[in-house]
Design a protein that fits this description.
By secondary structure, the protein is mostly helical. The chain has helices at about 5-20, 25-45, 50-70, 75-95, 105-125, 125-140, 150-175. The chain is globular and about 50 Å long.
Length: about 180
């Protein structure tokens, strides 16, 4: 079953597929999407009574800033992209495991996941980028579908593993890393 906000579903689904399959090669897109997704969630939280259009504008601005950072300030973008993706994925996974009932301190999940994502992406750039972009792509593909906690987690893991396998096979074939932080 699909969410009612289907107008954003198809573009996010397509971006999810691209990230799942090509996230390492399209590093700037990964960071831009991380900024966009974080912007949507932050705008809904900080400005709860604003329109969906306002939320999308805030998210697009943050996404574009993330993409520009990735192009011009790669080291900083690595840390920010890893932090945003790791934090968001930690909250999504915690929410899935806890039945969409996160405690009041859910920011702690974001902070811990964000720090781990930033550190991992900086130290193990290519492999962390493959894993995080595959997980983020899998989440974007699945986000508009209702599923039980168990089914969502299982589908997320299966899709992420498919993305990791595909991206890893192209990474092994290329001799030079895409970006050196």
């Amino acid at each position: 079953m699909l969410h009612s906000s289907l107008q954003y579903g198809l573009p996010l689904l397509l971006v999810g597929v691209v990230l799942l399959l090509f996230g390492r090669k399209l590093f700037w897109l990964f960071v831009g999407v991380a900024g966009f997704v974080a912007g949507v969630e932050a705008a809904r939280y900080i400005f709860p009574h604003q329109t969906e259009l306002f939320t999308m504008i805030v998210a697009l601005v943050l996404g574009l800033l993330g993409a520009l950072l990735a192009i011009f300030l790669q080291k900083l973008a690595v840390a920010i992209g890893g932090f945003l993706a790791g934090g968001y994925l930690a909250v999504v996974l915690a929410s899935s495991l806890l039945g969409n009932k996160l405690p009041a301190g859910s920011w702690l999940f974001f902070l811990i996941g964000g720090l781990l994502g930033a550190i991992l992406l900086y130290i193990f750039f290519n492999w962390a980028l493959i894993i995080l972009s595959s997980m983020q792509g899998a989440h974007l593909i699945l986000r508009d579908f209702y599923a039980t906690r168990h089914n969502y987690s299982l589908l997320l893991i299966v899709l992420a593993l498919v993305g990791i396998a595909i991206q890893a096979s192209t990474y092994r074939r290329s001799s030079a890393p895409v970006v050196e932080p």
